[in-house]
Specification:
By secondary structure, the protein is of the alpha+beta class. It is built from two helices and eight strands, in the order ββββββββαα. A hairpin with a 2-residue loop joins strand 6 and strand 7. The chain binds adenosine-5'-triphosphate (ATP).
Length: 146
């Protein structure tokens, strides 16, 4: 059997997820970063985005994360995220409202600091919506068209 990667995803509040996985994709600053067993040691910064965990024989798991770091060391992967939610835990309506608030702030404020905060809030909300919507689509695939 092929080697698996011990993975832990922790936030300042909790252990969001931990287990052994076959592969994962994380939203690094430089772009989506794929990690397979045997990956070289690494420390990279995360941005707000969706993360995918693949384990043989199971549906891929999706999470939304919002910044932090990913470390690969001694074959283990540790994600230290500011926030992390499994797609199932995401309250999509809350994320929609957060996105609307952030968009309204970006429209009406032109102060640098507020803009940066609103931009970060928008990115967190959009990452949550993407993860949540991807899982909803998987659960209720569109019926075939005639
Ligand atoms: P909001 O304005 O809705 O609070 P936010 O982006 O400011 O959104 P964060 O500060 O990133 O919220 O997160 C605060 C806490 O709430 C974290 O524990 C995070 O995991 C959780 N959280 C935020 N939004 C959601 C959501 N839509 N569904 C589930 N948990 C959420």
């Amino acid at each position: 059997m092929s080697k698996r990667i011990p993975l832990s995803i922790v936030t300042p509040e909790r252990i969001a997820w931990e287990g052994d996985v076959d592969a994962l994709v994380v939203p690094a600053h430089e772009g989506q970063l794929g990690i397979l067993p045997g990956h070289a040691p690494l420390l990279a910064q995360l941005r707000a985005g969706t993360m995918i965990i693949r384990t043989h024989g199971e549906d891929p798991r999706l999470l939304a994360v919002s910044g932090g770091f990913v470390e690969v060391f001694n074959g283990r992967v540790s994600i230290f995220a500011e926030t992390a939610e499994l797609a199932d835990e995401i309250d999509a309506e809350r994320a929609r409202q957060a996105a609307e608030r952030a968009k309204a702030q970006l429209k009406h404020h032109h102060q640098d600091k507020l803009d940066l905060q609103a931009q970060a809030a928008l990115e967190r909300a959009l990452a949550r919506l993407r993860a949540s919507e991807a899982v909803s689509r998987r659960r209720s695939p569109r019926p075939p068209t005639a």
